[in-house]
Amino acid sequence: MKRVVVGLSGGVDSSVAAYLLKEQGYEVIGVFMINWHDKTGTLEGDCPWKDDLIFAQLVAQKLDIEFHSADLSKVYKKRVIDYMFREYENGRTPNPDVLCNREIKFDEFFKVADTYNADFIATGHYCRKETVDKDGQTYQRLLAGLDSNKEQSYFLCQLNQNQLSRILFPIGELPKERVREIATEQMLPTANKKDSQGICFIGKVDLPTFLQQQLQPKKGNVIEIPRRFSDYLEFDRESKDPQYLAGDWKYQPGDGIIIGTHNGAHFYTIGQRKGLSIGGKKEPLFIIGTDTNSNIIYTGEGKSHPGLYRKGLAIPAGDVHWVREDLKLLPGETRDFSIRHRYRQPLQSGTLFMEKDYLYIIFEKPQRGITPGQFAAWYDGDEVIGSGVIE
Which of 29, 171, 188, 350 has the greatest number of beta carbons closer than 10 A? Predict the structure, then answer.
C-alpha cells in the first residue's frame, strides 16, 4: 500500500483530498503545518492557526487517519516573510503564495513527509497533474484545475519535475461545489468552514501595519501624472524590439504635480486604488509608479490612464524557471504562449523572446497593472510550461 502525507490545513479542500485518497486505497497520514505565530497586522475576525489546527485534528479523527503537526515557522520566516520585506523595501510587490508553495509546501514539507516514509504528498490545490513519455524520458505536466473559479496552477508555477513526481492533487478534477457536497455527505467538520483568505498561512492582514514590523513609515510626495503628460510616453507602435516594448514607464521626481503625501512608497503597489486618501477627482486615482529611492508615489486619474498599461515585461534570465525543462527556450528562440501575470487573470496571448540576459514577454494587447516582483507564468493550453519574476 502506497503511503501519502496530506497537508491538512483545517480547510474543506484538504479534508476532502484526504478522504478521497483513503477511498482510493492509500495509507493516509495527515500533517498540519504551523508556519506563523505572530498576529501583528492580522485583521480582527480572521481565524488563527490554532483554530485551523483543531479543525485538522477533528478531520483526522473523523477519517480515522494518523495525524501530526510540524512547526516550520523558522524556515517560513526566513524564506518567505523576510523575502517579502526585502522586496517591498525595494519597491517591488512579491507574491508570498507562490513562494510559500515553492519554499515550504513542496520543499520543506517534503522533508517532513520523508520522516514518515511517504511515497507521495498531497494537498487540496485545484490543479491537475499528468505523466507523459517523450523521447524515452518521463515528464510531469502541471495542468490547470477544471474549476475555472478556483483554478490554482498559477500559484504552483515555480514547481519542478522532481517535486511534481511525488505530488498528488486529488480534487483538481472537481468543482468547488462538489467538494463541499462530499464534505457534507461524509459529515466532515470542515464542510461549512469558510475558505481562508490573505497571505499564505497568515491570513488577511492590514498590509501597511504588517510591513511596519520591519519597514518604517516615511513621509513622501504623491505626484499625479496627467494623461496629457503621458502622451509622449506612448509606445512606438511600429517598434519590433522586444527590449524596448518590455520597458516600463519612467518618471522623474520633477514630473507631474504634487497632490498630497504618503507614509512610505514601499507600502504601495502599481495598480493600487485604495489607501491614498486623496479626493477631489472626477475619477479614482491609481498608483502608476513607485520610487523607493526618492520615496515618491506616482498616480494617474482613471482606470484608462496610460501609465497603468504596458506592452510587455522583462524577466532576468536567472529568474526564469521552466516547469518543463524539455520545452525551455534557448537564447535567440521565440515562441507564442498564453500568459498570466497575476492570479485570476484571464490568460493573455503573447510571445516570449529568450535572450542571453533576459526573457522578454510581449503581449498581443497592452496589459494593465504589470507589477515588478510578481510572477508571470506561461501556458501551452492548460499546461504550465514556465514562470519567472517580473523585473
Answer: 171
Among candidate residues 177, 59, 55, 50, the one with its CA nearest the CA of residue 126: 177
Q: Which of 265, 293, 308 is the last residue of a domain?
A: 308
Q: Are 170 and 123 in contact (CB under 8 A)?
A: no
In a domain, 119, yes or no: yes
Nearest CA-CA partner of 61 in 189, 211, 165? 189
* Mean pLDDT, residues 156-164 taken together: 97
Residues in contact with 138: Cβ distance below 8 Å, sequence separation at least 6, in sequence order? 131, 132
Structural domain count, the chain: 3
53-84: pLDDT as tens digits? 999 999 999 999 999 999 999 999 899 989 99
Catalytic residue numbers, as ranges: 100, 200
Question: Which residue range is the domain that position 42 belongs to?
Answer: 3-124+170-202
Q: What is the pTM of this model?
A: 0.91
Residues 32 and 114 in one domain: yes
For position 60, which CATH number holds?
3.40.50.620
Distance of CA 221 to the CA centre of its chain: 30
